[in-house]
Amino acid sequence: MSPAPGGPLRLVAATANRHKLMEIAAILGSAVELLPRPADLGEVVEDGDTLEANARLKAAAVCGHTGRAAVADDTGLEVAALGGAPGVRSARYGGENADDADNRARLLVDLQGAADRSARFRTVAVVAFPDGGELLAEGATAGTIADAPRGGEGFGYDPVFIPDGGDGRTFAEMSLDEKNAVSHRGRAFRALAARLGR
Amino acid sequence: MSPAPGGPLRLVAATANRHKLMEIAAILGSAVELLPRPADLGEVVEDGDTLEANARLKAAAVCGHTGRAAVADDTGLEVAALGGAPGVRSARYGGENADDADNRARLLVDLQGAADRSARFRTVAVVAFPDGGELLAEGATAGTIADAPRGGEGFGYDPVFIPDGGDGRTFAEMSLDEKNAVSHRGRAFRALAARLGR
Fold it and tell me: What is the ipTM of this complex?
């Protein structure tokens, strides 16, 4: 159940998204060794109605497939003027086969003329253990939706999200380390790492 | 977020049941200091439809009320011939105001003439942290329902539950240490303690 004393904890990553993997690896550091998502594992249907449900679905699927502890996260952008949308549907907000640009475009259209552009990025991160145990952590970052995309770093809604307390740059205008220091995913995975006793 | 190095982790107990508290304290040992359930916290409505949902409800309620990490569990007896009942309804199987004796009596009546008396005790234990993090662990013990209650130790369905792999005694005929070594609650809380890095 426990890793070898002093050795890194090994967690199989549920995501195949290399941006997410890079972020997570940078946050967790050397105490955790991320193993790649098994190539023979099919797509996990993310039909949960909350971020938490989807993160748990993904972690449990990879843990069940590999017999090893697995880590997953689900992230949503919750926009006040849209009543919390796109939320759990953030990845397919622009349509079932939408890419990042489609999703951002739909968001900017939906917010045209909106006085309130406040939003919140929220991540739920989950580790599933082979014995049925689970560890959940959450992180959120408050911010504002920009009028137009800015910056070439990051992914998803990063070019349109300006975190509160910063200098007005979007997440996509920050380095990975700058983003991780204040981001929803950074907060969730640091809380997870602290909980793992490392 | 983390306890003082070397000091015991403090967890507020969500249960006021002294039998459960004794079991949990004995399992967790000196690495965890269990703080009593606050007297001014009203009853938490356990209206979840799974053990897990109820354990999470209770841990979150106590954590929210106290601002401290809180631990809760929910336990059910799942009887094969009854399609998994009483399960999440174990505590009120004999009626809304049923006591342990009422619940056991109903179970024995329901199993009269049943060829298959196999059953499983299952516990889901949850720690809720003030930052929204959660730790879940599960433990189960397979066994058989006795024809009549035997033994004066323990509580709940202990007098009618004979764990597999033993010498035929019911949980209520065992010492607390003997029971904890093989019980659902023992397994769940040991897994929880290992997850807490202690």
Answer: 0.71
